[in-house]
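Sequence design from tokenized structure. All designs in this work follow the same two-part layout: the structure record, then the generated sequence. An example of the structure record is given first.
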């Protein structure tokens, strides 16, 4: 990449001396190359649906436990 002076997205970028001067001679790569966004995309609607099902299961299990405890206590 360096020898060919080809920009590589999220990795390398060829910038002019003027651009570097305008950036107070900052040679930090992050000043010129944008980092790749590696965050996972989450489907909120799907997650909420799964959460609703899980909460319903928890509520049913709690009711079952309460019934068992009530039966044991007589």
């Amino acid at each position: 990449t360096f020898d060919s002076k080809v920009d590589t997205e999220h990795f390398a970028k060829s910038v002019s001396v003027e651009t570097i001067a305008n950036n107070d001679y900052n040679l930090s790569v992050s000043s010129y190359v944008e980092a790749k966004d590696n965050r996972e995309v989450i489907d909120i609607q799907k997650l909420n649906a799964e959460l609703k099902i899980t909460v319903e299961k928890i509520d049913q299990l709690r009711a079952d436990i309460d019934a068992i405890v009530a039966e044991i206590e007589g």
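The mean pLDDT is 91. We note this feature because it recurs in several other targets discussed in the main text.
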